[in-house]
């Protein structure tokens, strides 16, 4: 199977799959697995990347997105230009509130005010947001775990939101018409650990995924082969 990693658009082939050091032929939703990929350096992958099948609506980098945001606890007012950190799936990236489109009733969704200037605690609004760095998100209706987020500021959660619409960037192409993907020198395999899309915060350690929402795309949580070998050696000498 050939997969691509968004937002970098790197492409690679899955060579093997394993779960708890046991080889698998395939993995299903909810499985916490590792798989080996070829010709990609560990430096080219980051937490928050999304892996998807290149033949089935592959994930792409997000240019802007519209979200319904509910302000939970903010000491002041939030206006256009506010740029807090968003925790969305395993991504932890600052996003700017580019435009406050409309203030809505948080329960019914009915429009209360067009183009509000500010938001305060307890209010909800449709907001156009722009990531400060390459990021991959999806509409909540299509992929729930990639479409909900928490807004973090001053070391606390100040708002939460769900993504209603996404504008994606065009995939950069080389002369051959294929997505740009720089191959690592030496062609060595890189071991990566992936988890199905869940609502886990990026700071939390991996836990039981049996009761968490799942989808059909993957989030990157890197696990280096060297660390695995060191752990195995420690167990063997214990």
Could you characterize what this model shows?
This protein has 2 domains: 2-59 and 172-237, Translation factors (Elongation Factor Tu (Ef-tu), domain 3, Beta Barrel), CATH 2.40.30.10; 62-168, Translation factors (Elongation Factor Tu (Ef-tu), domain 3, Beta Barrel). A hairpin with a 6-residue loop joins β9 (91-104) and β10 (111-114). It has 1 helix and 16 strands. With 238 residues, it is mainly beta. Strands 1-2-4-15-16-5 form a 6-stranded antiparallel beta barrel. The chain has one helix at 225-237; strands at 2-6, 10-19, 22-24, 32-38, 50-53, 62-71, 78-79, 85-88, 91-104, 111-114, 118-119, 124-131, 148-153, 156-168, 189-196, 218-221. Residues 9-50 form the Translation elongation factor EFTu-like domain. Residues 65-164 form the GTP-eEF1A C-terminal domain. Residues 203-238 are annotated as: Disordered. Belongs to the TRAFAC class translation factor GTPase superfamily. Classic translation factor GTPase family. EF-Tu/EF-1A subfamily. Residues 229-238 have a biased composition (Basic and acidic residues).
Strand-helix topology:
Layout (H helix, E strand, L loop, with lengths): L1 E5 L3 E10 L2 E3 L7 E7 L11 E4 L8 E10 L6 E2 L5 E4 L2 E14 L6 E4 L3 E2 L4 E8 L16 E6 L2 E13 L20 E8 L21 E4 L3 H13 L1
Antiparallel strand pairs: 1-2, 1-5, 2-3, 2-4, 4-15, 5-16, 6-12, 6-14, 7-11, 8-9, 8-13, 9-10, 9-12, 13-14, 15-16
């Amino acid at each position: 199977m050939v997969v691509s990693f968004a937002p970098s658009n790197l492409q690679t082939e899955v060579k093997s799959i394993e779960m708890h050091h046991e080889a698998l032929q395939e993995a299903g939703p909810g499985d916490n697995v590792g798989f080996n990929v070829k010709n990609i350096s560990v430096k080219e992958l980051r937490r928050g990347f999304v892996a998807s099948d290149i033949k089935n609506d592959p994930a792409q980098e997000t240019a802007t997105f519209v979200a319904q945001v509910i302000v939970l606890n903010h000491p002041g007012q939030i206006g256009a230009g506010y740029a807090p950190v968003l925790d969305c799936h395993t991504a932890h990236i600052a996003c700017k509130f580019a435009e406050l489109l409309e203030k809505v009733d948080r329960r019914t969704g009915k429009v209360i005010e067009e183009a509000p200037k500010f938001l305060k605690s307890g209010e909800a609004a449709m907001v156009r947001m722009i990531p400060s760095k390459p990021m991959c998100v999806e509409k909540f209706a299509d992929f729930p775990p990639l479409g909900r987020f928490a807004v973090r500021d001053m070391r606390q959660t100040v708002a939460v939101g769900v993504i209603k619409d996404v504008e994606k960037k065009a995939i950069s192409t080389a002369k051959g018409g294929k997505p740009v993907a720089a191959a690592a020198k030496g062609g060595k395999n890189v071991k990566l650990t992936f988890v199905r899309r869940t609502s886990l915060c990026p700071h939390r350690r991996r836990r039981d995924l049996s009761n968490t929402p799942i989808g059909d795309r993957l989030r990157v949580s890197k696990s280096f082969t060297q660390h695995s070998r060191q752990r195995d050696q420690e167990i063997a000498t214990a």
